[in-house]
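Posted in: Protein Modeling Q&A

I'm a second-year student putting together a small comparison for a lab meeting, and my supervisor asked me to include a predicted structure for Follistatin. I've never done this before, so apologies if this is the wrong subforum. The sequence is pasted below exactly as I got it from our records. If anyone can share the structure token output, I'd also love a short note on what stands out.
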Amino acid sequence: TLFRWMIFNGGAPNCIPCKGGESCENVDCGPGKTCKINRKGKPRCVCAPDCSNITWKGPVCGTDGKTYKNERALLRAKCKTNPDLDVQYQGKCKKTCRQVLCPGTSNCVVDQTNNAYCVTCNRICPPATSPDLYLCGNDGITYPSACHLRKATCLLGRSIGVAYDGKCIKAKSCQAITCSAGKKCLWDDRTGRGRCSVCVDPCPQSRPNEAVCASDNTTYP
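Accepted answer (user: helix_wrangler)
Welcome! Here is the predicted structure, written out as tokens:
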């Protein structure tokens, strides 16, 4: 140590100041970043995505459902805040699958919030091994398992919710539908079908003329 050197060798050695990392040499910033010297003369990793392979110059829709000015802007956001962010499809994010061209073998699906996403469909589902796996979709179709329902959702291009567990029955009211614990049957007069849903506390009394538009494109008072 320096103390032992001073005691046994008659003073401090001929020291020179440490460089303290004043160079970007041997600094590995990782993919999408590069090392630059800041105003204080210290090395700093900054975003510098590789845009050499970008051919599309227009806006793109990210996997976070947000529209970016171009792919360069998305790559900078990926570097700064969201390392899992990728381009979903070219063009602005849309509410329908019209004019959405998904890359590769992925399919366009509109989710329950009416946003279009590109997803890869799982086209192979294991055979149902138990009647307990049956699900009744809110489209009135019985699916052998949750995998089969997700597959149908993907291939159809729009969300198919689960109405209730088990096979679909020709019910005329909620009295014929048995829901699992914690759920209550809600009847849809428009489709003539019931579905089991988790109900929260009763809604407060709405004021006159305070109608709202829901994600199913239905106006509710």
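A couple of things worth pointing out for your meeting: The helical segments are 2-8, 71-80, 146-156. Confidence is low (pLDDT under 50) at residues 16-20.
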